[in-house]
Amino acid sequence: MGLWRADGERLTRIIPTSVGLEAQLEGYIESDPSMLGETLLIIGRQVATAFGGFIDLLAIDESATVHVIELKRDRTPRDVTAQALDYGSWVSTLGRADIDTIFAAYRPGVALEEAFEERFGGILPEEVNATQVFTIVAASVDAATERIVRFLNEDFGIPINVVFFRHFRDGAQSYLARTWLVEQETAALAAGTRKTKSREPWNGQDWYASFGEAPGGRQWSDGLTYGFVSGGGDLWFSRTLKNLLPGARVFVCIPKVGYVGVGTVLAEATRFHAARVLHEGISRPLHELPLAGDYGRAEDEDNAAEWVVPIEWTHAVPRERGFWRPGMFANQNTAAKLRNQFTIDQVSAAFGLID
Q: Which CATH number fits domain 4-198: 2.60.40.1940, 3.60.20.10, 3.40.50.2300, 3.40.1350.10?
């Protein structure tokens, strides 16, 4: 890697120096992990492993893949390669709760979900640490290390790579230049099999339900008043709603508004004209009640019909009081298992619920 200063028609070569570089790189990367070539969220620094070692930096990307980042420092190149893989083998055993614990120690008082949305502008995936990526940071490595890394990456698809940084000083100005051992397009290979432990465990009770309001159609004021959630118009919107069974607890969210209710499912999903709800202590046909919305879809076709699940509200609020915090769970399905403990905790606190 060469760098020249152009002064008119004259070129002056800037000589690289490694003095103090590796000692500073960890701090540089922590402050701006994008210098590694993609947007990352640092979740831990000098993370203690179960066998006594310390991982320099741990990070996640927007797919919730965990990145193990190891600096060569004064270790032999072969040692740091073996250590990165050794640390990676330990990281691969970590479940979602372990990742949360590591992040809580690194940034006390901040939920991983909140930090993820702040960094990536999206919701943390349900599966965290399903795969791992290994990055060795160095000023240089020997030929043997290059062969080992290329062999693992290019022949076996193990996502390990070396990123080189060179430090150039030109008078009072300092510059860092970056190159990769393996081209990033080649390095971005599948990183193993997904593991169910990478998800938060489901408690077997809590569900998410989306109440999609529509002008002239479904209205939350009806669901709030008469105790129900509904979906339909296409099999995509009604099929997941049928997974809600009596006794399940449902956290209801209006898309782009927030969470507006928590309640218990009273009966399985039925088509609108057959649905009954519990109103003022009496079971009543829903279609006979004075509704603000229109739910009379094509009742002669299951897929097109509006399907209704009656709910007994534990706590529910008007849409203008919908509750939302960055990092909370949302989903395009009408109903889904709610594994996101952060969402359960936040909504429960906001609504004054007691477990």
A: 3.40.1350.10
